[in-house]
Automatic annotation (TrEMBL):
This is Primosomal protein N' 3' DNA-binding domain-containing protein. Pfam families: PriA_3primeBD (PF17764). The lineage of its organism: unclassified sequences, metagenomes, ecological metagenomes. Residues 11-60 form the Primosomal protein N' 3' DNA-binding domain. GO terms for molecular function: DNA binding.
Length: 62
């Protein structure tokens, strides 16, 4: 679970011919289940695609 006052983001690589990752905000209710290397479903250009988490970032909530 995220700490109070912090927001969790993940970087996700998608199975697309792109050489970059994309950042997504993680909803608090699933934050404890999202791990590096885990498979996730994310919105991308009006579709839902599967990808893998390559990094996690926690930022202070503003």
């Amino acid at each position: 679970m995220t700490l109070e006052g912090k927001v969790k983001y993940i970087k996700v690589v998608l199975n697309l011919p792109l050489k970059q990752s994309f950042a997504y905000k993680v909803p608090a209710e699933v934050s404890s289940r999202v791990k590096i290397g885990g498979k996730v479903l994310v919105p991308f250009k009006r579709k839902i695609l599967s990808g893998f988490v390559v990094d996690q970032i926690e930022r202070e909530q503003s």
